[in-house]
Every structure is written in C-alpha cells, then in structure tokens.
Amino acid sequence: MTHPIIKDLNTRYTTKKYDATKRISAQDIEIIKQSIHLSASSINSQPWKFIVLESDEAKQRFHNTFANMFQFNQPHAKEASHTILFAYNPRFTKEQYKKVVDAEVTSGHLPAERYNDMLDGAFGFAELNTDETGFNGNWTKAQTYIALGNTLHTLARLGIASTPMEGVDAQLIGEEFKQELDGYVCDFALAMGYHKEGEDYNHGLPKARLPFEDVVTTL
Ligand SMILES: Cc1cc2nc3c(=O)[nH]c(=O)nc-3n(C[C@H](O)[C@H](O)[C@H](O)COP(=O)(O)O)c2cc1C
C-alpha cells in the first residue's frame, strides 16, 4: 500500500544509535509538544505529565539514572536530541478530575449545566479501575501509552527517529526527577533525534510483524 500514512509507519523504526551532532529544530519540537498535549485519554482524564529533556544538564540527570540497569539504552540519554519522560499519576482522584471538567466547560466543549453529570458519571470509569487503597496506576499508565503511540506517529510524519524505552529505571528516575514528577511515576521514556549513519544496526531493516490475518479480523 502506498498511502502516506502506511509509508510513514513503515519508515519509522526504533533507532539504536543517535548522531549526537544533529538536533531537532525548535519548530519540530513545538509540533511534538503540541501533538502530545492533544493526545486522547479515557474520560479525557489526562492523568499524565510529559517532561521534555533538552538541556545538557537534564540529559546528564537522565544519564545518571542508568547506573544500575538497562545500560543498553543509556547512550541515547546524551546522544539523542531530546528525550521525553512519560509519567502517570498513580492515584488519580475525583478532586483532580474537577480540573478536567472545569476545562470542559471553559473551553465550550461541555455545557455548564452538565458539569456534575460528567464529574459523577464519567469518573465512574476511573473508580472501576481504582483499588481500595486509591491506586489506579494501571489505568492511568495505559492512558499515557496512548500519548506514546500518538507521538510515535507524529515523529514518523516529521521524519524524526525515535526509541521508545521501557528499559529505564523507574526508581532512579523517581529520585532524580522527584521535584518535576511531583508524585507521578515514569516507567517509560522516548528518545528522539536522528540516527547515526552506518552505526545504527536497526536502520533500513524490514518491518517484522505477525501475519496481518493473525491480528486483524474484519467481521
Ligand atoms: C512500550 C515500548 C517499550 C520499548 N522499550 C524498548 C527499549 O527499552 N529499548 C529498545 O531499544 N527498544 C524498545 N522498544 C522498541 C521495540 O522493540 C520495537 O518498537 C519493536 O521491536 C518494533 O520495531 P519498530 O519500532 O522498529 O517498528 C520498545 C517499544 C515500545 C512500544
């Protein structure tokens, strides 16, 4: 298929080596940030924070978090142009959800008289996914992965290379970025930039996907 969307998604791939001399333009970074901000989430909960690491100091701090594990991803911390830390709120509360419903009304998306319908009704989805201690991190983390998928597609469109990384140390990231995370949890990150010619073994390889018929059923 030659549709541009399919071409983009066939061309994007997980980069294994970055060219440290190449930087994403300020204009493209702005598009990436706006795109991530527009990601969809269940009940529009947006239980996330995205921390964009751009400065050398921020990259060094991220680099430090590979002290104990996943060192195969560590070079990206400094060689990639930017990295985004994807973080989720492990205890998303109804009180916090009020901010979303406020935005629903002030944006003109929700009539003011329906404020309580949304607050009480929609939040039921969060409650269904909340345990007796108030933990709903499995659900909020799932929302954050939607933003990852959205960002991967945006990067594909922009022709920017990337590496989604679950191979990060959530505990050390939690300590190093404690202040910025403010109680949120980062279990995965996304390095972005431009691959290093000749040194990125993953570049140019064909896609390896399960047979289409095994995973897509049309009824
Ligand atoms: C959530 C997630 C976590 C991943 N974690 C890592 C990682 O830590 N390091 C790495 O090199 N690749 C990682 N990958 C890349 C996958 O291995 C890769 O997406 C998959 O093999 C498909 O290949 P493609 O991205 O080149 O199409 C991750 C991908 C996703 C979506």
UniProtKB/TrEMBL annotation:
Q: Does the keyword Chaperone apply?
A: no
Is-annotated flag, keyword Oxidoreductase?
yes
Q: Which residues form a coiled coil?
A: none
In alphabetical order, the GO MF annotations are: oxidoreductase activity
Stored PANTHER family? NAD(P)H NITROREDUCTASE YDGI-RELATED, NADH DEHYDROGENASE_NAD(P)H NITROREDUCTASE XCC3605-RELATED
| Source organism superkingdom | Bacteria
Can you tell me which family this protein belongs to? Belongs to the nitroreductase family.
Q: What is this protein called?
A: NAD(P)H-dependent flavin reductase
Q: Check the record and name the Gene3D superfamilies matching this protein.
A: NADH Oxidase (3.40.109.10)
Q: Which residues form the Nitroreductase domain?
A: 11-194
